[in-house]
Amino acid sequence: MRGSSPVLARRKDSAHLFAALGDETRLLLVTRLSAGPMSISRLTEGSKLTRQAITKHLRVMKGSGLVRGARQGRESVWQLNQRRLEDARRYLDLVSKQWDDALGRLRQFVEK
Prior knowledge:
Oligomer: single chain
Number of strands: 3
Radius of gyration: 19 Å
Largest sheet: 3 strands, antiparallel
Strand order of the largest sheet: 1-3-2
Number of helices: 5
Distance between the termini: 45 Å
Strand content: 5-15%
Order of helices and strands: HHEHHEEH
């Protein structure tokens, strides 16, 4: 990103990732894909969602780098990108640390 700081770029990237995670169906897909790569047919098993609906959600997730797909014969097989889940965890850890630090400063201020 031209003219953007690394912090701003990381925040925008994290926002895109959390937007992809911010949907009940996509969280279900993350859970299912945590067991390993799956075809769209397998991802639709036991759900009321169509293959087209699953595909739409997978494309959103792919746009954030959360999943990647590959053709295997006539099927598309999708795999979770564990690195992106780690990115989300690290961002949440950073925010948690910032809150802990702020609460510590508030405690010191109140106790004075």
